[in-house]
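Example: Sodium channel protein Nach.
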Amino acid sequence: MLRYWLNNTLELVPTPPALMVNPSISKPAAILMELTAGYKIFFHGYNELPDYYSTPINIPAATASKFQLTLSDLSTSPEVKDLQVSQRHCRLTSEGNLQYTPVYSHHLCFMECRMKVYLRVCNCTPYYFRRLGPDPICNPAGMNCLFKNLEEIEALGISSCHGCDTNCDEYVFTIDSVETTDWFLGTNVEWDLIKYPEIRYKRSLIFSGSNLIVQFGGATGLLLGASVLSLAEIVFFVTLRFCWCVFGKRQVD
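Written out as structure tokens, the predicted fold is:
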């Protein structure tokens, strides 16, 4: 990970194999046992991470908790991915336009916006943020500045981060139920999906350039009794053929 941060490239981080789940299992589940302390837990997709506005679930120590989740996902078709970002209004993970991270996510974009606001208001960034070049780290006076100007920073962050596009592929986990009981053998946490997702949302291209040509050709054939090829021939005879007949004969004469 250190090489990844220093070189600012995702290629240095190997991609782990995907976790395969047997579809015959009615409720895919995972469990962590005998943790030595309490914890905060976030549920999010693999291409996203928690940010300042994410609300964690606080679980105290010496408890056993069970979460039941439902999953909804939004994927993007290859035809939509071929469009410009300004056309589809979303970004892929590989379409990084950020200064501090080589990959893109909606939350990473917001983090970078807040870092720039910190530098603008207090001329420093907290120690737990990544920095590039000479970005100063906040000392106690700088952290006090951030705390005193928190409302101004929040207002500037919201106004300056409106250009952060959403992720093209999104995964949203909804917590349906939480059960927490006292447990004397450390801290345990278990989560499972109530059922496999039954509905998948997808961004698809409804009307493409080829559809436009087909529709235009059909309308032309219906109204004028001609095809796109006929129109191309008319343009040819009116322009190139006409010029050749006029100027070509002059050169022969």
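The chain has two domains: 1-203, 214-249.
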